[in-house]
Amino acid sequence: MKIIVVGLSPLGRRLADELSGRKGVELVLIDQDEATCQGAADRYDALVLQGDGTDPELLAKAGAAEAQALVAATGSDALNTVVGLLAKQAGTKQVVVVLDDLALRTACQAVGVDRVVSPVWAAASEIRAFLLGEGALDFSVAVSGGARVAELSPGPWTGEKFGDLELPKGVAVPVLLRQGKALVPDPGTTLRAEDVLVVVAQDEARLAALRKLIHPEAS
Description:
This protein is α/β, with parallel strands linked by helices.
């Protein structure tokens, strides 16, 4: 499968580390900086192109029309949003956009972007697993003390009041993301299908129990 990474930011480089040399992956890397591209060409088993990822001609040269996935990780939210839009227009099957400011999440979803991730929570290995079909993308990362943080959609809890949810022991949902804004839910908050639950679990087992509870088809 062809996977394009636009922008060799720290996250973009970590993702290239995860994907380079993997069997069945045709990796294409794009960055504007000449020295960065030269270093990437020496380091990775990939086609490296220097240029502006918002240039439709460059995306066409990279093979966006037939690519299985593209990750926009330039370090600029505005550029990543434009790259995501152009990739969807070009026909890329799955587009992941990295945003520091989640206020643009709604705009990205409106243009058909498949996933929006925050580098605060996202790990390159989680994105890689999603791209390669190895697991659901929930952006979980290890935090101090062995706890886990994840972003999950409400699934069957859509329409339920937050206070009525039966969370597994050792799991909390301190924040939900709605229309690009972070909200602290109260017992009367009604969950919407487009909401994103920011989950904190005591350990991986408890996070897995929650995943199974609300997304049994992905377990």
